[in-house]
Amino acid sequence: MEDNINLKYANKVIQKIGLCICFYDLLSASEGLIGHGDGLVNVNVEFRIVVFRPFKFEIMTGRISSSIESGIRVRTHFFDEIFVPARMLPEGSHFDHNEQVFVWRTEEGTELFFDNQETVRFQVDSEQWNDQAPLGPEKQDDNEETRVIEAPYKIIASMENVGLGPCLWWD
């Protein structure tokens, strides 16, 4: 039963709940009912599952996966959809097109880099939920536009406060 629950829910996003990680425990299970004609056993179960959904203002640690002019993408060991918009970086930060990273120029004039693969601390600012309902078949037109598929769950984060950003800066 545990394997079937994990197969159905683990590593999937449930809207307004979060990212399901794994089965935790079984609270109750009914007696199995055998279906007519197919022989399958149906059992009603009540269980708990481990879910990832950080709360607002929670401080987390991750790694910078990439930087673009609009912001920085951060990932954890199990979740990739964390975005830090450029406006939520420390004041004085700018995007270096040659290095493809953000650079924070401190008040003293020192340049500190948000390098890729650097371990960073960030603060959860908000969540973004995108409905994954099927949209139906695409029309085959001459001016074909590629459909952008949004992640079902995305975290918008900030690194503008003291102590946030690359851990190397604050250790």
UniProtKB/TrEMBL annotation:
Gene3D superfamilies according to UniProt? Nucleic acid-binding proteins, RNA polymerase Rpb7-like, N-terminal domain
Q: What is its main location?
A: nucleus
Q: Which domain of life is it from?
A: Eukaryota
Q: Where is the RNA polymerase III subunit Rpc25 domain?
A: 58-170
* Cellular compartments per GO CC: RNA polymerase III complex
Q: Which residues are in the RNA polymerase Rpb7-like N-terminal domain? A: 2-39
> What does the UniProt entry say about where the protein is found?
Nucleus
Per the record, a Pfam family? SHS2_Rpb7-N
- Protein keywords: DNA-directed RNA polymerase, Nucleus, Transcription
List, alphabetically, the InterPro entries matched. NA-bd_OB-fold, RNA_pol_III_Rbc25, RNA_pol_Rpb7-like_N_sf, Rpb7-like, Rpb7-like_N
Gene Ontology biological process terms in this record:
transcription initiation at RNA polymerase III promoter
Q: Which family does it belong to?
A: Belongs to the eukaryotic RPB7/RPC8 RNA polymerase subunit family.
Q: What does this protein do?
A: DNA-dependent RNA polymerase which catalyzes the transcription of DNA into RNA using the four ribonucleoside triphosphates as substrates.
Q: What is this protein called?
A: DNA-directed RNA polymerase subunit
Q: Which organism is it from?
A: Monilinia vaccinii-corymbosi
Lineage, please?
A: Eukaryota, Fungi, Dikarya, Ascomycota, Pezizomycotina
